[in-house]
Structure formats: structure tokens, C-alpha cells
Task: inverse folding
């Protein structure tokens, strides 16, 4: 079948992979029309690529809807083991589409309609990625600005090229923060630093963002290759254990130590019953590297 990303005009076609394996079962998803979002699933990795490079991948309502649909496609695929979000042609995401903002002013779009676009469309895309049940990784090359900055830090891990920059500069277009800034940013850098970054709109280079913890790793050269090498142990790891650990860490912020320990014990019961645990234990006893299936 050829699943379509609703509202995006992007069609995904499942094609034979040149190197079939236990992750792709001999198939690869490829986008045969590239506007405005591309989804590729290969070797256990679902990659969502924002594909409006002429606008530095700025988010439109249509694009945000396509991101949500792409996440749904990835969640429905039984061979996906992690999710990557990136941007096309040297830009990650320049935030909200300023042309659309200007259009709203020129056409006198009602305020409630404008808010709905932000709340129910753009924010939904970021929320959907943040809530994805498997490990998520942002690959940031070029600028991540405003809503694009939130899209960059919403995943579990953020990888960046040496050319990456990030800013929560909503103030530059006379707007307050949105798309999850007030939730995501203080949890990354603390309340005081979050206020500083928002109030000044400072544009951070990759090194400064890494020092603050906004970027987990910065790769100065061969970004795609080094990012792929970083991803490999996640994409080939014990998926049940990794997704469970991710959930437990997220829950741990809102619970006591004793409750966290109890939650871990309860969750471990299902992980102990996984094929990957059996393979991991067997491989350890046999003195070899485990070959996890993600089940």
C-alpha cells in the first residue's frame, strides 16, 4: 500500500531495500513527492525531514500537519526502533513562517483562528514528537529558531553540526513564547537561564548550546556520518528496554524515589519477558555481542 500524509501531498512508497535485514524486512519507505515533509524508514530508523529549504524549513500549518501524520506512520510501522527529526539542505527549522504571519495581518484573520493554528497545528507537531514512545533524536544543521528551537529540544537527544545555531527569539517578531517553550526550555537549562534566553533572544552557536545542555553532541565534521554512528547502538539496541527506560526517566521527575523504584520494578517484569532480554543474557554467557531484534 501507499500511505499518504494527510494534507501534505506527500506519498510514501514502500520499496525493496538493497540490504534486507531484521529491521526493515527487505523494505524501505521512500517519499515519492517531497513537499513539505519527507519520511524514510530504513534499518529501524524513521527519519522525518522538513523539506522547505527555500524558507529554511519554516513551519506552516500544512507542514505541521504533515509532521503529525509522519509520526503516526512511524508509530504504526512495526520495524521502527527510533525516530529522527532533521531539516533539508543545511537548515533545521527557522520557526514559524513569517510570510504566513504577514498574511494574517494583511487579511485580518481573526485572532481565535490565528491562535488555533499555533495551538492545534504547530504545537501539536512538537507535542507529538515529544510524546513518541520510542527514542527520538533531533539532527540540527543550520538554524533552529523559535518554534524550530522547540522542535530541536523536544526529542530525547539533540545532535548538532558545528554550523548549528539555536534561538528562542520569539521577541524578534513581537511574540511571547509558544509551542512548548515554557515547558521544554526551563527543564533543559533551568528557570533563570530560560528567562535570559527568551528575554534577550540570544542566538547561540553550537558550542554555547552544547555547554548549556541544549545540544547533547556537536560534530564539527562529517555530521551525517558521525550522527549515523551515534544512532547505530540505539537503532540496533534492545528496543523494549530502551523505550521502557525512556518512560521511567520521564516519570521520575514527578515522583518520589520510593515510587520510582516501585515503578522500575513493575516495568522490569515486562522487560524480563522480552526476546531481547533472553538474547542479551544468552550472549553475555556465551561471550559474544547480542543481536537484538527489538522485541
Result:
Amino acid at each position: 500500500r501507499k500511505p499518504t500524509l494527510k494534507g501534505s501531498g506527500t506519498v510514501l512508497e514502500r520499496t525493496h531495500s538493497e540490504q534486507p535485514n531484521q529491521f526493515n524486512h527487505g523494505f524501505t519507505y521512500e517519499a515519492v513527492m517531497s513537499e513539505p515533509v519527507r519520511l524514510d524508514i530504513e534499518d529501524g530508523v524513521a527519519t522525518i525531514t522538513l523539506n522547505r529549504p527555500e524558507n529554511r524549513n519554516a513551519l506552516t500549518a500544512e507542514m505541521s500537519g504533515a509532521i503529525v501524520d509522519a509520526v503516526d506512520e512511524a508509530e504504526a510501522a512495526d520495524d521502527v526502533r527510533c525516530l529522527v527529526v532533521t531539516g533539508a539542505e543545511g537548515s533545521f527549522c527557522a520557526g514559524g513562517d513569517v510570510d504566513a504571519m504577514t498574511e494574517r495581518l494583511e487579511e485580518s484573520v481573526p485572532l481565535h483562528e490565528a491562535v488555533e493554528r499555533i495551538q492545534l497545528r504547530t504545537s501539536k507537531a512538537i507535542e507529538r514528537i515529544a510524546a513518541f514512545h520510542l527514542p527520538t533524536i533531533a539532527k540540527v544543521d543550520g538554524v533552529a529558531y523559535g518554534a524550530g528551537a522547540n522542535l530541536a529540544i523536544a526529542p530525547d537527544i539533540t545532535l548538532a553540526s558545528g554550523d548549528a545555531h539555536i534561538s528562542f527569539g520569539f521577541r524578534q517578531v513581537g511574540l511571547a513564547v509558544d509551542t512548548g517553550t515554557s515547558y521544554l526550555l526551563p527543564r533543559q537549562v533551568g528557570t533563570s537561564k530560560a528567562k535570559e534566553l527568551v528575554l534577550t533572544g540570544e542566538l547561540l552557536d553550537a558550542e554555547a548550546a552544547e555547554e548549556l545542555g541544549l545540544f547533547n553532541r556537536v560534530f564539527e565534521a562529517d555530521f551525517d556520518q558521525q550522527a549515523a554512528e551515534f544512532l547505530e547502538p540505539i537503532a540496533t539496541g534492545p528496543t523494549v528496554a530502551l523505550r521502557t527506560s525512556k518512560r521511567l526517566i520521564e516519570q521520575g521527575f514527578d515522583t518520589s524515589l520510593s515510587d520510582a523504584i516501585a515503578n522500575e520494578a513493575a516495568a522490569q517484569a515486562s522487560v524480563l519477558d522480552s526476546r531481547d532480554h533472553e538474547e542479551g543474557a544468552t550472549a553475555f554467557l556465551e561471550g559474544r555481542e547480542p543481536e537484538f531484534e527489538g522485541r
In short: The CA atoms of residues 146 and 168 lie 5 Å apart. The mean pLDDT is 86.
